[in-house]
Amino acid sequence: MAEFTFYTVAMSRGQISRWALHEAGADYEHVVFDWATRPADYADINPMNKVPALVHHHRQKNGGSHDHVVTEAAAINHYLAETHPDKGLLPDAHERAAYFRWLFFGAGPLEQAVVAKAMDWEVPEERVGMAGFGSLEKTLSAMESWLKTHDYVTGERFTMADTYVGSQFVWGLRFGSIPEQPAFKAYVERVTQRPAYAEANAIDAKLMEEGGEA
């Protein structure tokens, strides 16, 4: 058995965490399904019944083992960085603030703002603060200010946070939900040049061609 079992749908946020699995060089097997054929017992792994989900078959030195379940792409990606510390994907002491700031910003305000815009959800001006994400314009302005002067989430070095934040911009520029600002386009070009991104993306692309299951 592989160390990790990865549950995903080919055309989904699972692509974010597959990239992380390849950056970490994780020993994993995948369970791929589509929305209509997800396993009946999948809700036992993720009660939300959504993907991705990662099961870590944690083997102990005494020969025992037990499973850890992680859901939510941002959490999965950071967990993989923690379980593969030799890959250099974790922030150092001086990078931690930016790492966690933008990782959670990407998983919170940025994604919420993009989805709200796509759904045509209008937040009254007097309730913008209550919404948490403010507005799409404000979230993108915050990210643009950072990416104009920093190559990556933590500054000048790629870390696991870039698999999540980078994915938000890859998808956003591809589908037009994020405007093609020079700072965003340059960031996407940097992160998508990584071999692990190409490897992971090729797997999901092939699965989609074959109908999304394996």
Helix-strand blueprint:
Blueprint: E1 4-8, H1 14-24, E2 28-32, H2 42-45, E3 53-59, E4 65-71, H3 73-83, H4 96-118, H5 128-131, H6 136-147, H7 161-175, H8 182-191, H9 195-209
Parallel strand pairs: 1-2
Antiparallel strand pairs: 1-3, 3-4
Helix pairs in contact: 1-3, 1-9, 4-6, 4-7, 7-8
Summarize the structure.
This protein has about 210 residues and is of the alpha+beta class. The chain has 2 domains: about 5-90, Glutaredoxin (3-Layer(aba) Sandwich); about 95-195, Up-down Bundle (Glutathione S-transferase Yfyf (Class Pi), Chain A, domain 2), CATH 1.20.1050.
Please describe what this structure looks like.
The longest helix has 23 residues, at 96-118. This protein has two domains: 4-89, Glutaredoxin (3-Layer(aba) Sandwich); 96-196, Up-down Bundle (Glutathione S-transferase Yfyf (Class Pi), Chain A, domain 2), CATH 1.20.1050.10. It has a four-stranded mixed beta sheet with strand order 2-1-3-4, with helices on one face. The model has no long low-confidence stretch (mean pLDDT 95). It contains nine helices and four strands. The protein is of the alpha+beta class and 214 residues long. Helices cover 49% and strands 11% of the residues.
